UniProtKB/TrEMBL annotation:
This is Sugar ABC transporter substrate-binding protein. CDD domains: PBP2_TMBP_like. The keyword Coiled coil does not apply. It comes from Lacrimispora amygdalina. Transmembrane segments: none annotated. Pfam families: SBP_bac_8. Residues 1-25 form the signal peptide. Keywords: Signal.
Amino acid sequence: MKKRLFGKETMAVAMAVLMAAGAMTGCSSGGKETTEAAAETTAATTVASVSKEGQAPADEIKPCEIKFRYWADNTDYSQLMQDIIKKFNAENGKGITVIGEESPWDGGAYSENLFNAKMGGGDVDCATWKLTSTPLFVNNGLLADLTPMIDAWDKKSDIDENIYNIMVEAGDMQRIYVMPWNIQVLYVYYRPSIFKKAGIEVPKTYEEFLQAIEKCTMDTNGDGKTDIYGFGMRGAKGGQEPWGSFIYGRGGSFEDLTTPEAVQGMQDFIDIYQKGYVPPTATSDGFSEIIANFQSGLAAMTIHHTGSSKDMEKLLGDDVSAFPFPAGKSQWTSMGDTETVIFESCKNKQAAFEWVSYLAAGEGQKMWCEGTGNVPVSKSVQASDFFQNNRFMKASIDGQGHAGIVPILDTTTEWISNIWPNTVSQALTGSITAKQCMQTLQDGLYQ
């Protein structure tokens, strides 16, 4: 049975989830009262229901101020956000004035500080967000249900349905409390020169991907030692994200890690380690190691996202490219996220929605994603030459339809930090079987 973060009694555990998620993915009451039926009404009825709850339709918004809290990873991003706010304030035509309040991410303490502020009656109207924060805030009645406004939004279809589904999964499984903004989708980096040496093309299926790993493992100078490994495996903390793609490739899922399909995906992971297709240090390799091994040519492929693409391109030029993790019986890749939310206490929710929707599919989306290198959620922005002509952005966009997240449960922090790396290490080195490994992982996540 999944355990979600309910009530104040699990607050301390939830905060640990926020802090852990921040370390991994950083540097990037009223809501529950809306019925499911309301989300299924027509756009006209939805607008009317929003108006009935005290929120004016978009064409009746009165001049107001919206307090918006955000974090920025560096001074350039900070200035960019101020430029976006300035442009919106000058051009929205509805008298909405966004007041930006910057707060440091501080390893995830941003979310904890925001929670404490809202529980104390703070007057922030909306904020930038991480999905891991959602259950705690929802179950304390702090987030506005955005479903009616999104259903009435004329640009709703500009965002992939899968992205909305992820937002729903992070909340109460029924409503959308989080507005998509920008994402980081994991893909496979590869070295074209090594592929050419191995005589292979970019794999189109999961089976071809496994074969590519084998063929790219080479002794290039004939001394009997491997000079190039087919894949840079991340066996330390954080490795659960690329690992998940192997599980889904065989038809498994996070819903039940003990199915025969999930166990076979784990066996594939074990096999590429035990057959010597990955560096022998893989059980302890983290982000820095897999990137260094790939950049040096020790590994032909590895998995990450656009956050590392500029350095890759600067160092390797044309000898680096990317493709989405290929589909097998199923397909999945991990999605990092940065979104926005509107708080239930906001007195001008429709005006706040004008702002967050501007970030999601307006000029604010284009400015932010072009300026930061994050992947846009807006299909129309994705279609521009700026993103389509970037091979790393293209691989990210092509992967968004099957992207997902590790379940956000009250066990997730411990599972990611300790259970997953320790258990998988035992399986890779032969101390336990794939089946035993997956049973332990299942028990640890869904205890």
